Amino acid sequence: MTATWVGGGYINGTAEYVYLPGYGLAWAQAPFGYALSLVVGGLFFAKPMRSRGYVTMLDPFQQIYGKRMGGLLFIPALMGEIFWSAAILSALGATLSVIVDININMSVVISALIAIFYTLVGGLYSVAYTDVVQLFCIFLGLWVSVPFALSNPAVSDIGVTAQNEVYQTPWLGTIDMADSLMWLDSFCLLMLGGIPWQVYFQRVLSASSATYAQVLSFLAAFGCLVMAVPSVLIGAIGASTDWNQTSYGSTPPMLKDESDMILPIVLQHLCPPYISFFGLGAVSAAVMSSADSSILSASSMFARNIYQLAFRQSASDQEIVWVMRITIFVFGALATAMALLTGTVYGLWYLSSDLVYVIIFPQLISVLFVKGTNTYGSIAGYIFGLVLRIGGGEPYLKLPPFIYYPGWSREKKVHHVTKKVEYFIMQKFPFKTVSMLASFLGNVAFSYLAKYLFESGTLSPKYDFLDAVLSKHSKEIMDKATLVGNDNIILSELAPVTPRLSTTLAGTFTNTEALSDGESSPDSSNHENE
Q1: Fewer CB within 10 A of the terminal residue: the chain, N end or C end?
Q2: Residues 241, 244, 248, 249: is their CA dihedral positive or negative?
Q3: pLDDT per position as a tens digit, 11-49
């Protein structure tokens, strides 16, 4: 579980934010955000999901909101997984290109192929076992390189540069009052938006018991914090370096717009060559450990919730496994293609992880903890969240906002290398969290409104075109049965019904012997057939 969260983006991104002047450690939210998301997930979500015996994260949605709504919720979940894999694969390409003089595209394709191959062959087992090795590689690789980088003569004492300005602003960083809402918004996004991922529930739902699933989450939270320490140190080293004395050149990385590569740059220019290979191995291992589980979880959601439950209820286990293998390959290829072809992978990943937070998180709370929500509310919440989030725009994708939230400002960004000036709208308002709350309240309000209108008879039953309110009560019993596995339930699986014989008119027509004899008949008839 730790290895899944500690990806290339996590390691590179943490180092980048600690290094960036004007941000610093105060803005490196990923380690604390994700660690807390695992704690919150363990406290509130792991137990109900595991004890109800679901197979994927979308199961509760399909059980309560129906198959079509499950399909709609699959879209942001799938986009999140694929863009995430693509983002970390492109991080790998960037890292490799700094240290080794080989074609980036080749290296990304090869590492993606390796990850896809062992995921294809062994499924969750191979992902789990390779994660152990990869986590060990990450830990070893980064910790081996930190002392070498620290002892480099070009690096001044990081204890001094934490508070005082030496080569750039102190790396501890500060949060201005004006930015505090934005900081909180991003923090909630990481903490609560880190929960509704199939990658996380894949681990939770395959744990041997609900309690064990909780323990797993807490241990992984601790693991995530530990694994971020070398990243933070490398970012701090980058902020305390006189680049003039290194082989990198006199211009610091931020003025070359290379601050996102600070980790590989430190490994390359401040450590001996054989050590920088260790560090590179660490980043590659981190990327593979996250990409494989992400691709596996996307394909397991597709195979179970879309293919099996929506199209082919009678599919055998073998068929589902083959569908999964094909989709692992397809999704893996998609992620790799996106990593190589689009420059805006990070923008896509930000947007899709926002959608997971704004759309799926409130729906997950409603499904697990709010009684009486239904498909109408779910659709309303989905639309609210989508419109409010997309309306806020995304500067990474050059997506202009059409909703200007209070406190917006027009900012300019200068590219240091090309001297190009770009203008974008900066939204300081915590609109992501507001969209999430609006989505949740919309879900609850519209659910109860629909329930009231249909049950009080204000709207006639024929308008309940989603069968969400009135036929729900008869369907719930059915759904529980179909979610168990197969449609053709064997007689012996059903609990024996003992009739209550009363001396009414109906009782006189009941053949009591036939009823009591019904226990042994299916077995005896089976033997005759054989």
Answers
A1: C
A2: positive
A3: 888 888 888 888 888 888 888 988 999 999 999 998 898
